[in-house]
């Protein structure tokens, strides 16, 4: 009986692993296709043909897209929003979460309740747009940073994480003469590095992929984010509208290879950063999930 059960379990594992492998392969194919098209030499590219590997390798599409004004402007805009937005997100999220862990803070329950309510209700697109407009943030990077300083989910997770830290460490620091700010900077922040690494990735991806807010708040094409520009490249018939580079390559580079190259360039920074933060990813999120 034991051998039969073991064989059934083994067969079940084979089926599960095979199904997961098949799903993985199917998921990877679109990515390989995009990379393959982007690396295909313009002279060897044939429209509507499936490329798993380029017939003739070339970085012409990348050279062209990186020489255009619009792509470089959108890259600078996205990089600025991501860098500044991520730093402010971490600052506001962790300082507010730390305050919410202190039961003696005046109005703690009110602010905690206000945070939780936003998990179920939000103002909506039109009221938020009117608020951004009245604050004078339209057509500025501030419209993409200030309304997204934090969110309820992040605050609750970070608060739970901080509550799992041993309070004796804070008590010992205060006995040594540390103020509340000193305790936060010298004790809480160093112990929260795994959570900071994880949420740095969360916030950076969120800002790097900013699309809808940029679409409704930013009308100046020089301040477009990468996602808005790529949307224009994919939808518009002429990919040469990406900008004036002053290069004659615009006449010989196929529109499809330019689109694919822009998609790869938009994905590349996150793909490069993620492996370095991966080891902190699960740990930083799960540390606050269990207390004891």
CATH fold description: MetI-like fold
Q: Based on Cα principal axes, name the global outline.
A: globular
CATH superfamily: MetI-like
Beta-strand content estimate: under 5%
Low-confidence stretches: 244-248
The number of distinct structural domains comes to 1
Instruction: Give the end-to-end Cα distance, rounded to a whole number of Å.
Output: 41 Å
Task: Report the average pLDDT across residues.
Answer: 82
Summarize the topology.
Elements: H1 2-38, H2 60-66, H3 69-100, H4 108-117, H5 125-134, H6 142-145, H7 152-163, H8 167-175, H9 180-191, H10 193-208, H11 212-217, H12 226-235, H13 255-286
Membrane topology: Multi-pass membrane protein
Subcellular location: Cell membrane
Keywords: Cell membrane, Membrane, Transmembrane, Transmembrane helix, Transport
Word description of this protein:
- By secondary structure, this protein is mainly α.
- It has one domain: MetI-like fold (Orthogonal Bundle).
- The chain is built from 13 helices and no strands.
- α8 (167-175) crosses α9 and α10 packs antiparallel against α13 (255-286).
- The model is unreliable at 244-248 (pLDDT under 50).
């Amino acid at each position: 009986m034991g051998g039969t059960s073991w064989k059934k379990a083994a067969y079940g594992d084979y089926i599960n692993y095979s199904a997961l492998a098949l799903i993985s392969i199917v998921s990877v194919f679109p990515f390989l296709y995009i990379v393959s098209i982007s690396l295909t030499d313009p002279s060897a590219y044939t429209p509507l043909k499936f490329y798993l590997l380029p017939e003739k390798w070339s970085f012409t599409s990348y050279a062209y897209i990186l020489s255009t004004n619009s792509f470089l402007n959108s890259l600078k805009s996205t990089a600025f929003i991501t860098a500044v937005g991520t730093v402010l997100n971490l600052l506001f999220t962790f300082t507010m979460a730390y305050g919410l862990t202190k039961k003696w803070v005046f109005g703690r329950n009110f602010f905690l309740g206000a945070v939780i309510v936003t998990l179920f209700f939000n103002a909506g697109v039109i009221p938020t747009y009117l608020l951004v407009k009245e604050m004078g943030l339209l057509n500025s990077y501030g419209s993409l940073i200030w309304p997204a300083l934090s969110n309820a989910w992040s605050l609750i997770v970070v608060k739970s994480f901080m509550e799992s830290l041993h309070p004796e460490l804070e008590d010992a620091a205060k006995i040594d003469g540390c103020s509340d700010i000193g305790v936060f900077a010298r004790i809480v922040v160093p112990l929260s590095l795994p959570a900071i690494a994880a949420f740095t990735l969360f916030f950076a991806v969120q800002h790097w992929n900013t699309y809808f807010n940029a679409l409704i708040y930013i009308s100046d094409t020089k301040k477009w984010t990468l996602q808005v520009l790529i949307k224009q490249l994919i939808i518009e018939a002429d990919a040469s509208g990406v900008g004036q580079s002053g290069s004659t390559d615009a006449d010989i580079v196929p529109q499809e290879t330019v689109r694919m190259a822009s998609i790869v360039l938009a994905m590349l920074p996150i793909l490069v950063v993620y492996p370095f933060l991966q080891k902190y990813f699960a740990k930083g999120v799960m540390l606050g999930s269990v207390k004891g």
